[in-house]
Write a sequence for this structure.
RNA sequence: GGAGAGGUGGCCGAGCCCGGUUUAAGGCGCACGCCUGGAACGCGUGUAAACUCGAAAGGGUUUCGAGGGUUCAAAUCCCUCCCUCUCCGCCA
């Protein structure tokens, strides 16, 4: 959520920033109109309620002939108050819906653009590997080695599902374990094992609801949503709480499956394991002081980059332009690893600062000793998404004989296995 | 799923039967002050959040799990729901 005081105080700035992301700035005019009628009604009601409380209390002590007269008067006042309360509830509902519908404003350093083509490549690390044979795409490699079974995934569940087998399953597990170890030891994150289903309040806190409900899977009988990312339970872990400032920064990590309907990308990336309805991911979440958030974003990107670096796979850092930012994000850097088989730079991580946008929705605050509560800033980033990391590993480490070498850092997680051969 | 007991401020806990005398008692914790060479003890003062009026001091409203109802007036009475605990049932 945005700060209503900022919107009231500087509506032109807010409109300009919203326009930069491609959102409709006239939303702000409607919002402010609703806000002002809400406030004046609130004020009127406050006065009536104050009078009722005062005079009702006196009614208990007053003489009996005066009581009947006064009681009738109070009853009328009571009717006015309930009518006003109904009207106010309606206004507040509308106001809250509009507030929840507004996206976050971009950071000043987020470049302005109109589509993903305006994203900026910040830097590239490592050289894409050169091959003296034609590298295969992972869907061919995976099938030939017998470690990815697409047909049976479809049989079990439908399109966009697959099954990892043998060394394929082991490779993914090794990547997860290795990434978590890196996060929790050298990078200072606390590992969590959160629920994979959460309630609508939780999924509103991070900004998926109310606007993006149709991108998630949900239970039809209970109030359960399947998490689209571990960002949801991790960020909301402290929802509604006021944290002691000494706890900050809080760095959390978790490995979870992620569930996405991928309605918007129907027909895209249908080959291979790049885009599925269910995938695994190691996620990083930070809760930090507002003044630290830009510096912490750099550190988040660096934490994700280190994973690519140690896998010895070329990657680049891309800064998203204003139009390509997610709903809650104020600044985002994507990390893309090069996959020589399909010839693509694959988005393996997306690191964002959501400033106080999610903290306001979820009510996550901190307090300095003796001070007033303040909203934290929340950040999240993948560290990394497993299927795309698998693609990058398989395609970069493939050898002329059709086998795949195991990256050095993963060998101790795979029983010292050095080469993945056909099953 | 069934039965019972509960949900009150940062924490513990009284108030609920019997609506108004509670600005939510009391304690703990915390902060500040006094005391002290310094501390403990003791004493005193303060101690939530949101919204809002005000230059400030300060004031107003809301919040006793959530929502609805009764009433001039609800933490207190009624209804619905959620959650926690205990026991039972079922199940990995």
């Amino acid at each position: 959520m945005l700060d209503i005081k900022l919107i009231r105080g500087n509506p032109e700035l807010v409109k300009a920033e919203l326009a930069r992301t491609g959102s409709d700035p006239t939303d702000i005019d409607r919002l402010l109109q609703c806000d002002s009628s809400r406030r004046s009604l609130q004020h009127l009601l406050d006065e009536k309620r104050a009078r009722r409380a005062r005079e009702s209390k006196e009614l208990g002590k007053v003489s009996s002939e005066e009581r009947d007269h006064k009681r009738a008067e109070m009853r009328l006042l009571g009717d006015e108050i309930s009518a006003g309360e109904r009207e106010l509830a309606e206004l507040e509902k509308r106001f809250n819906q509009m507030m929840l519908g507004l996206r976050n404003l971009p950071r000043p350093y987020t470049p302005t653009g109109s589509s993903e083509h305006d994203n900026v490549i910040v830097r590239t690390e490592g050289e894409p590997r050169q091959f003296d044979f034609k590298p295969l795409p992972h869907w061919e490699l995976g099938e030939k080695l017998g470690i990815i079974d697409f047909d049976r995934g479809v049989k079990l569940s439908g399109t966009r599902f697959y099954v990892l087998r043998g060394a394929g399953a082991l490779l993914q597990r090794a990547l997860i374990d290795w990434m978590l170890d890196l996060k929790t030891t050298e990078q200072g994150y606390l590992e969590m094992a959160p629920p994979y289903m959460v309630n609508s309040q939780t999924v509103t806190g991070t900004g998926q609801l109310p606007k993006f409900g149709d991108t998630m899977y949900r239970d039809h009988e209970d109030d359960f949503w399947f998490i689209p990312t571990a960002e949801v339970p991790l960020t909301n872990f402290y929802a509604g709480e006021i944290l002691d400032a000494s706890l900050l920064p809080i760095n959390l990590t978790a490995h979870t499956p992620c569930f996405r309907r991928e309605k918007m990308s129907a027909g895209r990336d249908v080959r291979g394991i790049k885009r599925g309805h269910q995938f695994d991911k190691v996620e990083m979440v930070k809760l930090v002081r507002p003044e630290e958030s830009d510096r912490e974003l750099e550190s988040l990107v660096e934490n994700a980059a280190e994973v690519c670096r140690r896998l010895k796979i070329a990657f680049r850092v891309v800064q998203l332009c204003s139009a390509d930012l997610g709903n809650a994000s104020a600044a985002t850097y994507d990390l893309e690893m090069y996959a020589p088989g399909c010839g693509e730079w694959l988005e393996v991580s997306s690191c964002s600062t959501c400033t106080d946008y999610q903290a306001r929705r979820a009510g996550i605050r901190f307090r300095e000793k003796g001070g007033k509560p303040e909203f934290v800033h929340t950040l999240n980033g993948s560290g990394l998404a497993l299927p795309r990391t698998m693609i990058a590993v398989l395609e970069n480490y493939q050898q002329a004989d059709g086998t795949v070498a195991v990256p050095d850092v993963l060998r101790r997680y795979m029983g010292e296995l050095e080469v993945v051969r056909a099953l």
Q: What stands out?
A: Residues 39, 42-43, 45-47, 49-50, 52-53, 55-61, 67, 70-75, 77-78, 242, 369-370, 373 of chain A lie near RNA strand B (CB under 10 Å from a C1'). The CA atoms of residues 72 and 78 of chain A lie 10 Å apart.
